[in-house]
Amino acid sequence: MAERQEQAASDAVLTRIGQVVMLHHGGDREEARSRLLDLWAEVGEAGDALHRCTLAHYLADTQDDPQDELAWDLRALSAAEERGAPLSLRGLFPSLHLNLAADYVKLGRDEAARSHLRRARDAAGTLADDGYGDGVWAAIGRLEMRLGD
Asked: HEC states along the chain?
């Protein structure tokens, strides 16, 4: 019973994150950032790795400063790499490394970008042959072309 309640609470947090992401995709970046930061404070630095990874991943997308975007993407990767993190987070590694590569390009740090792009490509073998996987592969290819790789 307690396990089911914990799962329901977890799903509620993910649902709330999804609602805020829809707000962001609707064009309200500032409000989305504010609500995601509120959720981040609620989940806390020691909270569930899936929640922290997901929140940090989406918080990165709401940042105006590329350095802030990088900091949130690094938090997302850190949560995904934690000992005891759900194995399902491993499926996010291609996207997480791709985001970091893009962050480093924005900051003019091409070698760091190439390093994360290689890691994204290496991890992309785990992607399903579906729209998400195809999109990540396409983004890897575009960034490789941009970097001249």
From this structure: CHHHHHHHHHHHHHHHHHHHHHHHHCCCHHHHHHHHHHHHHHHCCCCCHHHHHHHHHHHHHCCCCHHHHHHHHHHHHHHHHCCCCCHHHHHHHHHHHHHHHHHHHHCCCHHHHHHHHHHHHHHHHHCCCCHHHHHHHHHHHHHHHHHCC
pLDDT tens by residue, 36-49: 999 999 999 999 99
Full-model pTM: 0.89
Contact 117, 144 (CB under 8 A): yes
d(CA 111, CA 57): 22
Residue at token pair 């790789």: 149
How large is the C-alpha radius of gyration of the chain?
16
